[in-house]
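Our preliminary data section would be incomplete without showing what the modeling component actually yields. Below, a chain of 202 amino acids is followed by its predicted structure, encoded as tokens that our downstream tools consume directly.
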Amino acid sequence: MKRLNFILAVLLIITSGSAQVNEKSERKFYKQSDWEFNISSSIGRGSKQTKETYYYSYDRTEKGTFCNLGISTGFFIIDGLSIEPEFDLNLNSEGLSVSLLGNMCYTFYLPLKDIYPYLKLGYGMSNDPDNQNGLFEYLKFKTINAGGGLKFIYFQGMAFKLEINYRNLSGSNTFYSYQSESYKSESTISVFSVSIGLSLLL
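Predicted structure:
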């Protein structure tokens, strides 16, 4: 009888512990049909390789600091997986430019933790700070956006974000002189940056 009572007590403890773990391990955030609003800023180093053609061709490479301010909103189509349109305002030594991106982001889940790792991959268009057609014109630079980071939940529905980001822009400009002579510039920009931001679940 004592042995039976002992076995029943052990089973009760195991079952109770398992139920508590399962309850705690349920995904609380970034679930299907959730909306997420993000704001972030980043700073990084990058290089710009340019090939210019005007009667003859020559190449040049420039390196510098790149800064970025971005806002995005995400909709979770399934648990963890969101579609995120993103608007960025970029600043470097040449001036201001903008980027319009479409990202896919997957937010992983770690049971019993308030830390959510994520990976992001996107594609969109940007303009070159060298352009003379206005900030929101000449969006002809193809842009690949990739990143990975962590979301730290510190308040209900609010998270601090830390991200390592890579961005590649490629495109060309063609200019014409008053004598109708063409001048062509082809550029590729690669930027590695660190981004910090806030995430708010709506």
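Confidence is low (pLDDT under 50) at residues 14-24. Residues 2-24 form the longest helix (23 residues). Preliminary results of this kind motivate Aim 1 of the renewal.
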